[in-house]
Design goal:
Elements (H helix, E strand, L loop, with lengths): L5 H24 L2 H29 L7 H20 L6 H22 L18 H35 L8 H35 L7 H23 L4 H24 L8
Helix pairs in contact: 1-2, 1-4, 2-3, 2-4, 3-4, 3-5, 5-6, 5-8, 6-7, 7-8
């Protein structure tokens, strides 16, 4: 259990749950000192989580992201990393920072809880020879890291749409819509080049290494390209046409839903070369 990292992931699960509750109480009770304790709990969970990933990787001899359990565990860690990288830029906005902490801990807790369910085996599985490749590790880790930043943009965009709707009905918004719009843009601007490297460039190199061709229009490859194009459209509309606010938020939402479907749905709903469980 120690070498597989399961004990570390369990401790991280508890830490994320504590952080989730502390951030929630901080927002409900308007107590900044509770938020600081929540940040500490989130940091503990993140570090223990990362240690578990390192131990599991050392045990296998490579980064282990070759089945759904391992992908969920890694994805949840990356989401916390991405949220906190963006949160550094909004330190003076306490409400937004607390919201970021609440949402990142909620997502991380939910994904680890799902991974720990009876649906997936937690013990390391023998890695197929085709999957023992550093190009695969780069491909998957960079693609998921990029999607972690897309998750930040998704949450920021959902909040923007929610607060915008409240504002339109005459209710006061506790968080600046411009701040949420800028958070979404920053997250996508940071995640897009990483996703491009991992999802397309490293993915094509690994495909050549594994199957003898750089591109085969496999369903996962196709949906990755479609997802990438949606974010190209987002950046083009933002930078080239100056779009902001509600219209652009919907593009970010659609992009992340496509990314989620590409990450998990394609494997189970559409048969192809990437149908590894």
């Amino acid at each position: 259990m120690l070498s597989s990292g399961v004990l570390f992931f369990t401790v991280a699960l508890v830490a994320y749950l504590m952080a989730l509750l502390l951030f929630l109480f901080s927002m409900l009770l308007h107590r900044p000192h509770i938020e600081l304790v929540g940040i500490g709990a989130l940091a503990v969970g993140f570090c223990v989580h990362g240690a578990g990933l390192v131990l599991r990787g050392l045990h296998a001899g490579m980064i282990t992201i070759t089945n759904t359990y391992e992908a969920l565990i890694f994805y949840s860690w990356v989401i916390v990393l991405a949220f906190q990288a963006i949160a550094v830029t909004i330190r003076k906005y306490r409400e937004a920072r607390a919201l970021m902490g609440l949402l990142s801990s909620t997502l991380a807790f939910s994904m680890i809880a799902l991974a720990a369910s009876p649906l997936f085996s937690q013990e390391p599985q023998p890695i197929a020879p085709i999957l023992r490749s550093h190009w695969l590790a780069l491909h998957v880790s960079c693609a998921i890291l990029g999607e972690g930043f897309f998750a930040v943009a998704f949450v920021s965009s959902i909040l923007l749409l929610w607060f915008d709707r409240k504002r339109r009905t005459g209710q006061e918004s506790r968080v600046s819509l411009d701040l949420l719009d800028n958070l979404s843009y920053k997250a996508i601007a940071m995640g897009f080049p990483i996703f491009t490297l991992g999802g397309l460039f490293f993915g094509a190199i690994w495909a050549q290494h594994a199957w003898g061709r750089y591109w085969s229009w496999d369903p996962k490859e196709t949906f990755t390209l479609v997802t990438w194009l949606v974010y190209v459209v987002y950046l083009h509309l933002r930078v080239g046409f100056g779009w902001r606010g509600r219209r652009l938020a919907w593009v970010a939402v659609i992009g992340f839903l496509l990314a989620l479907f590409t990450f998990a749905g394609v494997n189970y709903l559409i048969r192809g070369l990437h149908s590894y469980k």
